[in-house]
Amino acid sequence: FRPFSSLSSLSADEIMLQDSVRKLAQSAISPKVREMDESEHMSNDVISHLFNQGLMGIEVDSQFNGSESSFMSVILAIEELAKVDPSVSVLCDVHNTLVCTVFNKYATDPQKELYLPQLTTDKIGSFCLSEPASGSDAFALQTKATKTDNGYILNGTKMWITNAAEAQVFLVFANVDPSLGYKGITCFIVDKDQGVQIAKKEQKLGIRASSTCVLNFDDVFVRDDQVMGQVGKGYKIAIDILNEGRIGIAAQMIGLAQGAFAKAVPYTYQRKQFGKAVGEFQGMQFAFADAHTQIEAAKLLTYNAARLKEEGKPFTKEAAMAKYYASRIAQAVSGDAIEWAGGVGFTRETGIEKFWRDSKIGAIYEGTTNIQLATIAKFIQREYSD
Ligand code: CAA
Ligand code: FAD
């Protein structure tokens, strides 16, 4: 991949991580992408590489076997993985930005000591918020947690849960008292062997190697010490984590756009029509320049949101803008890339069409495009309505 020019302020450690993920993606993931897509299965070998290379606990303290690195490093890793396979990228993204981050920020010391070494070594995590009747309206969730001696009994159904087929540790949002509305939502740590049932694995348009499942919780007992954070504060955990998680999805989308660009553009300088390389026609060159600019703009939005978060500054609006814009340009660039390669772009062999199929999800998960726009609009109204 040819480097884009953006952000000269990456640290030496961040550049080193970026290079090492790039090499891993080329050597260990790239040869498996097509097979994983067609079989709709994530390779165990790829998962082992992610763990072995310290990519499954990038921000976690070294005392828990984590890489103790920056949020920007997570973003760079997600981006590099998505250049080669957005499915592998989202596995790593959910595990780091949604699961490990919840443990880092909200877990008690004993919960950290028990779970973080597992999550950085060999156990994958899932984040279970959405349900059949509550997607965008996430706080209307119906999974119930009934208090009992020494713990809670969980009943309900979760839908669209990424990593669920491979995961051992589930963060499950359930309501302890629906009469309180979303102020009853509580986050629970649930081990797979406590009774998490995989009811269905979805067959999808894109990111097909990434598992997405329906989960049933049928009288699943969890101990009091499996409550994450405070009872009734689960909604805060969910949205705080999603605000930053959205920067991860933006990174996935900018990686994807670069992956499609890098596959299609070199081909156009080889392919000759009318006596010259098709990439030399101005109609093609302007399209490349436009796409390149869009990718750069999305990258800057994404990196800026990441840096704001790292600096402890407000970043919710910037994260929503990054996710909104990056998912939009990822769809546009990957769709155009198919056309730049002509008929061969439309075939499975080149892998360009896969990027386009994979791009569609960026506008749906971790808050749809309309949810991002609603978030941005709230800030505009706050700023301009007084
Ligand atoms: N940041 C911080 N707090 C927020 C917030 C935000 N972006 N949006 C809402 N809140 C808070 C409000 O301040 C309020 O809290 P208090 O009562 O303590 O003040 C509370 O949330 C409710 O506010 P609203 O009534 O305005 O919110 P709502 O109920 O209309 O919708 C929402 C809130 C569910 C968060 C919605 O805006 C949203 O983001 N929906 C999308 C859900 C989502 O992103 N799901 C992702 C699932 S995980 C996933 O998808 C992973 C993956 O694919 C890889
Ligand atoms: P709906 O909420 O039904 O939305 C349908 C349409 O209505 C959308 O276009 C939406 O923008 C629009 N709409 C809804 N409300 C409004 C509004 N107020 N204003 C304007 N328009 C609106 N969830 C998890 O908890 N964990 C996961 O790991 C996870 N992984 C996922 C992986 C995949 C592949 C998919 C497809 C989903 C995943 N999700 C996960 C769920 C995802 O977050 C939801 O699909 C998403 O939040 C949208 O919810 P929905 O599908 O119910 O759509």
pLDDT averaged residue by residue: 96
Main sheet makeup: 4 strands, mixed
Major sheet strand order: 1-4-5-8
How would you describe the oligomerization state of the chains in this entry?
single chain
In the predicted model, the low-confidence regions spanning at least 5 consecutive residues are none
Which percent range fits the helix content?
Answer: 40-55%
| Global shape | globular
How would you describe the overall organization of this protein?
This protein is α+β, with helices and mostly antiparallel strands and 386 residues long. It contains 11 helices and 10 strands. It has helices at residues 12-29, 33-39, 44-52, 71-84, 86-106, 109-121, 234-270, 282-310, 316-340, 352-359, 369-384; strands at residues 125-128, 144-148, 151-162, 169-175, 185-191, 196-201, 212-223, 227-228, 272-273, 276-277. The strands form 3 sheets. A 4-stranded mixed beta sheet has the order 1-4-5-8. A 4-stranded antiparallel beta sheet has the order 2-3-7-6, covered by helices on one side. It has a two-stranded antiparallel sheet with strand order 9-10. The longest helix has 37 residues, at 234-270. The mean pLDDT is 96. It binds acetoacetyl-coenzyme A and flavin-adenine dinucleotide (FAD). Residues 232-380 form the Acyl-CoA dehydrogenase/oxidase C-terminal domain. Pathway: Amino-acid degradation; L-isoleucine degradation; Lipid metabolism; mitochondrial fatty acid beta-oxidation. Residues 12-121 form the Acyl-CoA dehydrogenase/oxidase N-terminal domain. Homotetramer. Keywords: Acetylation, FAD, Fatty acid metabolism, Flavoprotein, Lipid metabolism, Mitochondrion, Oxidoreductase, Phosphoprotein, Transit peptide.
